[in-house]
Automatic annotation (TrEMBL):
Keywords: DNA-binding, Membrane, Nucleus, Repeat, Transmembrane, Transmembrane helix, WD repeat
Membrane topology: Multi-pass membrane protein
Source species taxonomy: Eukaryota, Metazoa, Ecdysozoa, Arthropoda, Hexapoda
InterPro entries assigned to the protein according to its UniProt record, in alphabetical order: MFS_dom, MFS_sugar_transport-like, MFS_trans_sf, WD40/YVTN_repeat-like_dom_sf, WD40_repeat_CS, WD40_repeat_dom_sf, WD40_rpt, WD40_WDHD1_1st
One GO BP: DNA-templated DNA replication
Biased composition (Polar residues): 690-699
GO molecular function: chromatin binding; DNA binding; transmembrane transporter activity
Record-annotated Major facilitator superfamily (MFS) profile domain positions: 766-1195
Transmembrane segments: 849-868, 880-900, 906-926, 938-959, 965-984, 1056-1077, 1083-1108, 1120-1140, 1152-1169
First and last residues of every WD repeat: 132-173
Record carries keyword Methyltransferase: no
Protein name: WD repeat and HMG-box DNA-binding protein 1
Keyword Methyltransferase carried by entry: no
Residue numbers spanned by region Disordered: 676-706
């Protein structure tokens, strides 16, 4: 029996489509698609199907007991009536779009799976539901056992599982069967399993190009069904109702049917457009219905069984137009298409002649062997060449300098360009090869004396130097016809017209016309060269084939664009409000991942600075020398390098012992110096025209030379300026009078913040709750003033033999000239009834043990910062915060009952360790939930409870008057902070970073509800965040450490100055707090007044130095720099108690030290640059230039 393909009918717009067969009294078909519509087709002649829009996307559909059940992106399974498709209720809900549904013929169960990795089995009669969890990625396909015992599921985590419904457990797993991904909508294959419909005696699932059938219960493989004609892997398989046949569909529109009993293939069908089949449905005993997704055109086809063989039931736009005799110019572009040349532009011309020589291609009769012969007219200059054409080159170009060849793409790889340099300077291999980007094929090839040009199938004109360095990419208005080069000139013939639709037109921030076409290519008009340049190929930006970007604005200065990602459409939806994302503009150069291409991109990208160009040029020269391609280094210096760059290249060549190369570069530098004045040398880093010969610069051309498009020079020269002259960086897309949404250099667009808001009731509750942890922090860190207050004492044993007063004496004259140490003391308890000094006799030779207790506390804070920072990155923010609060309360309370000083010290250290944890984790959590515009304010307000806690210390001590009572009083409130477990959420940013999108979504939904933000924003934010994570690229593979802060002179000084200020803040703040307790007068009043007035400035300095450190250190070592400063502050706080008690040596020492410290810090601040309204440094080089005087830079 052979398969017969029936006519096709348009169903839904481009995107995922599903279909089911309604077998009730009114038979028909039901379809759903990514347009959110569900459509009921009563029969094949139904040209007006009933349509109901239920959501933004309707993903999966089944029929059961006279009802239609639809899974959608509203995270529900919607019930609809048939055929009116009216909403009748909801079966179940998920926290993510429902991606799969399944049922059995005589079953009352409906199985649903969603993108939140959960599966629910629901009885539609009783509404009872069973949840199955275990997959680690979205559910792709489901099948229900007819006996209602098992469920089979496929998931994007790569596995197929069989579940026991009653026991709620997995009974068998096949791993690495499904291609892994993180979204249902970008899944390559679904690998949907299928139970045998009659008795469920076996289960089938696709595996590569086979269908595997396994036995029920044992799950052992019974057989594999194969098809030798399949082009690609299978995606879906389905048993027929009778159980004797099984059908499967592939990724390229192929469908195969087998006889299960005989294992023989019944038939094979192939879609002419290679469209992906997204659904199969059982229809009767033999016929099978498929729903196809066309990712290349704007149609989805549904194969419908029909008794007629003609095409009367096909809804065709072409037929409608033909019936009313539309002229060709009235037909739409999608029908007419673009007329290609009638001849094959890529056919290798057997006898290609020009003034240089002839290139011929020879092939054997069987076609297995192929070679290329190159003959030159002047044999004294070039000898003949014989090349094995194993790549099957079909294009060739020949000049006096190069032989260029190009081949079409094949199964083994993409289209390639091979260039043999005929007269390159130096030794080494003179051949280079480049791969064109995927999906791009060379159509024409040309070569001149200093360039190679390739016109491609995507209307790109790629230009290379003869040494292999890539230049700009020009945009051709139409398909190329022919192209030729001579000397430094290039002539191109192309078809007039436009080969794709215009999707966006606008102006960049530099007022350059910019367009994007339907192929998602962005082009910009260069006004100096009057040419269109290819700016970016957004297909390489981590989006689906059916997705597109809608541009909001293009910035040449920032080299990025703001846009909206449109799922399955060219334009964004009106509701819910779309979220703007930001992507970099990166020219689609060949081999984009290589280091060489990264540096070439910096040479020719828009808005590049001279400093970046110089660095990129030197790196390219170094790479050429390292690869023994000296001719490439010479080529770069001859064509685009300034004399300054050549001088640096000469130094490098001498350093790597390439003396001959250095001499050659000196010759080039001398020639350029003679032809240009000093002013032209300073701006000669970037040239725009072809050179006339190897010894003249690109600018020294005749006026009739054809120039390459130039890089638009910024209106303001990009170079480091003095901070007084630094311009405020402006958002080019910001409307006048509107606040900045995303200050460049600080933070990118934040989709997570869009979902939960910047500041609202939800934020306020959490911010107030989190800030309360600063009360115990202040109480414990500054408690030493009242735990070990200055106490007068008298020696009472041994007895003195003299009448001398024993007050504050540590030694006793017992007679006969014998001096002994005092062993027993009487303490003045008029103010404090008990302290750690009186408890453990911390006087005389044990006096410094009181100071050691405070030093141990500050060291514990330092260790706590380190330990809890690692814990917070590993297990989240909330759990470490709860652990720290509980540990702080328990150890602080227990230390009040310590019978020994040593035990007190241990408990105090642990308490300080947890205090350091609460400080760090609470601050990080707060900064991760508030909006960027609130972070500076909140970072200051966050420390207000600390100051209030400092002021409260004297009151608590006054009310307790004992060290144990004080310790209990400051530890008990922490117990109430354990209620944070039910108040404080986990950080949604950390959850998203760890891939826990389900938990993050729940928190964001709650935040959106409390802040009255549309819930739809949460879903869009999660999709945008996922997209940004996909397209985010690592800028540097270099690992940075603390040594990078001291490698360059300017950054080294700034690091020292900032670290000294951190040290002064820590030393003076905690030292003064303890010193106030040693002054004459009432200790409670002294501390309270100092906390209220004198220490406010020092308290403000802490958040100030923290914020300044974040701004002055470059991004690559910012965490390291701030961490170094924090360590400096802790060292200062560790030694502060010893300075505070120096008054016993000389009364003037503590105030002098505490006074000189801030003065020294203030003087050092004068040498630091202002960071307000300045672009933050990104690299070590940026930080080195940040703050240098303009005069020094010019010098």
């Amino acid at each position: 029996m052979s398969l017969i393909r029936k006519p096709t009918r348009y169903a839904h717009q481009e995107g995922h489509t599903d279909v089911c067969y309604y077998s009730g009294e009114k038979r028909g078909l039901v379809t759903c698609g990514c347009d959110g519509d569900v459509r009921s087709w009563l029969n094949l002649m139904d040209d007006d199907p009933t349509t109901s829009c239920i959501s933004e996307q309707a993903i999966t559909v089944i029929s059961k007991d006279g009802k239609i059940f639809v899974g959608n992106d509203n995270n529900t399974v919607q019930i609809l009536t048939y055929p009116d498709l009216e909403k009748e209720g909801i079966v179940t809900r998920f926290s993510a779009p429902v991606s799969a549904l399944a049922t059995a013929k005589n079953s009352s169960l409906i199985v649903s799976g969603a993108c939140d990795m959960r599966i629910q089995v629901t009885n539609i009669n009783t509404s009872d539901s069973i949840e199955l969890e275990g997959h680690e990625a979205p559910i792709l396909g489901l099948s229900l056992d007819p006996k209602e015992e098992f469920v089979a599921s496929s998931s994007a985590d790569g596995s197929i599982r069989v579940w026991n419904i009653k026991e709620k457990r997995t009974v068998h797993v096949w791993n690495n069967v499904v291609p892994k991904c993180n979204s249902f909508f970008i899944a390559k294959s679904y690998c949907t399993p299928s139970f045998k419909c009659t008795d469920g005696s076996c289960l089938a699932y696709p595996s590569n190009k086979d269908v595997v059938i396994v036995e029920r219960s044992s799950w052992k493989e019974l057989c594999r069904l194969k098809c030798s004609t399949l082009k690609t892997d299978l995606s879906i398989c389905k048993f027929s109702e009778c159980g004797t046949r099984i059908a499967a569909s592939s990724l390229y529109g192929e469908m195969v049917v087998w006889n299960v009993e005989t294992k023989e293939m019944i038939g094979y069908l192939e879609h002419e457009q290679d469209t992906k089949i997204t659904a199969l449905v059982k229809f009767g005993s033999e016929a099978i219905l498929d729903s196809e997704k066309n990712e290349d055109v704007m149609e989805n086809d549904i194969a419908l069984p029909d008794d007629d063989d003609d095409d009367e039931n096909v809804i065709s736009l072409n037929k409608i137009k033909a019936s009313i005799n539309l002229e060709d110019d009235q037909k739409s572009h999608s029908d007419a298409g673009f007329e290609k040349p009638t001849f094959d532009t890529k056919a290798f011309v057997p006898n290609m002649w020009n003034d240089v020589g002839m290139v011929r291609c020879f092939s054997s009769e069987d076609g297995e062997e192929c070679s290329i012969e190159v003959e030159f007219h002047d044999v004294t200059v070039h000898r003949s060449m014989h090349i094995n054409n194993y790549l099957r080159h079909s294009l060739a170009a020949l000049s006096t300098q190069v032989l260029a060849l190009s081949c079409a793409p094949s199964e083994d790889g993409p289209s390639k360009i091979v260039v043999i340099v005929l007269q390159g300077w130096g030794s080494g291999n003179k051949e280079w090869i480049l791969d064109l980007p995927e999906g791009e094929e060379s159509d024409c090839l040309a070569a001149g004396d200093n360039f190679v040009a390739v016109a491609t199938s995507r209307r790109n004109l790629r230009i290379f130097m003869i040494g292999g360095t890539q230049r700009e990419i020009l945009a051709l208005p139409g398909p190329v016809v022919a192209m030729n080069g001579l000397g430094n000139h290039l002539v191109i013939a192309y078809h007039a017209g436009i080969a794709s639709d215009l999707m966006w037109l606008g102006l960049s921030d530099a007022r350059s016309p910019t367009i994007m076409d339907s192929d998602d290519i962005i082009r910009i008009y260069d006004k100096r060269s009057c040419q269109w340049r290819v700016l970016c190929d957004t297909n390489a930006q981590g989006k689906g084939r059916a997705d597109h970007y809608f541009i909001i604005g293009v910035s040449e200065h920032e080299r990025n664009m703001r846009c909206i990602l449109c799922k399955g459409s060219y334009y964004p939806p009106t509701t819910p409000r779309p979220i703007i994302t930001e992507i970099d503009l990166s020219a689609p150069l060949c081999e984009p991942e290589s280091e060489k291409t990264e540096k070439e991109r910096k040479l020719w990208e828009i808005g590049s600075s001279p400093l970046d160009e110089t660095e990129a040029m030197l790196t390219l020269i170094a790479l050429a020398c390292r690869s023994n391609l000296e001719y490439r280094a010479v080529d770069i210096c001859e064509q685009i390098a300034s004399t300054k760059v050549i001088d640096l290249a000469i130094r490098y060549a001498l350093r790597v012992n390439k003396v001959a190369l250095a001499n050659k570069l000196e010759t080039i530098a001398d020639a350029k110096s003679n032809s240009k004045d000093l002013k032209e040398e300073d701006v000669g880093n970037h040239q725009d025209d072809f050179t006339t010969n190897g010894n003249s610069s690109i600018n020294d051309q005749e006026e009739d030379d054809v120039s390459l498009p130039s890089i638009k020079k910024p209106e303001i020269e990009i170079k480091p300026l003095a901070m007084s002259q630094t311009l405020k960086r402006v958002n080019p897309f910001l409307k006048a009078g509107s606040p900045s949404l995303s200050p460049k250099g600080l933070v990118p667009l934040d989709p997570v913040q869009e979902a939960m808001g910047s500041m609202g009731p939800w934020h306020i509750v959490i911010a107030v709750a989190i800030s309360l942890v600063k009360f115990p922090v202040a109480w414990h860190q500054l408690s030493i003033v009242f735990l070990a207050p200055p106490t007068n004492f008298s020696c009472i044993a041994p007895l003195s033999a003299t009448n001398e007063s024993m007050t504050m004496k540590c030694e006793v004259d017992v007679g006969n000239g014998t001096i002994e140490e005092c062993t027993h003391f009487r303490y003045d308890k008029r103010i404090f009834r008990e302290s750690i000094i009186t408890q453990w006799n911390l006087v005389c030779d044990r006096e410094q043990l009181a100071n050691f207790a405070q030093s141990c506390t500050m060291f514990g804070v330092l260790v706590g910062n380190l330990i809890f920072s690692m814990m917070a990155d590993r297990i989240g923010r909330k759990k470490p915060l709860m652990i720290a609060i509980a540990l702080q309360s328990v150890t602080g309370f227990a230390s009040a009952f310590a019978p020994w000083y040593e035990l007190f010290l241990v408990l105090k250290f642990i308490c300080a360790l947890s205090t350091g944890g609460t400080m760090l984790v609470s601050f990080v959590l707060l900064m991760e939930i508030v909006g960027v515009e609130w972070r500076s304010i909140m970072s200051v307000l966050f420390h207000v409870p600390f100051l209030i806690g400092h002021v409260m210390n004297p009151l608590i001590s006054y009310l307790t008057l004992t060290w144990s009572g004080f310790q209990m009083a400051v530890s008990i409130p922490s117990i109430f902070l354990l209620a944070y477990y039910w108040i404080i959420p986990e950080s949604p940013r950390w959850l998203l970073a760890m891939g826990k999108s389900r938990q993050a979504e729940q928190i964001l939904l709650k935040a959106a509800g409390r802040n009255k933000i549309p819930v739809e924003n949460v879903k869009l934010a999660l999709e945008t965040y996922e997209n940004q994570s996909t397209i985010r690229q690592t800028k540097s593979n270099e690992k940075y450490n603390i040594s990078h802060l001291f490698r360059t002179p300017n950054l080294r000084l700034k690091t020292i100055y900032v670290s000294v200020n951190w040290f002064v803040c820590g030393m003076c703040f905690f030292g003064l707090a303890q010193y106030m307790g040693h002054l004459d007068g009432n200790i409670f009043i002294n501390v309270a007044v100092s906390a209220s007035l004198g220490l406010v400035g020092m308290a403000i300095s802490f958040p100030t130095v923290y914020l300044y450190s974040c701004e002055v250190f470059p991004t690559v070592v910012r965490n390291v720099g701030v961490g170094l400063g924090s360590i400096s502050a802790r060292i200062g706080s560790i030694i502060a108690p010893y300075i505070a008690t120096m008054g016993y040596i000389q009364p003037w020492l503590p105030p002098v030290i505490f006074g000189l410290g801030p003065i020294i810090g203030a003087v050092l601040c004068l040498f630091l640059p202002e960071t307000m309204n300045c672009e933050l440094p990104e690299t070590i080089e940026d930080a080195e230039n940040f703050g240098k005087k303009k005069s020094e830079e010019e010098h």
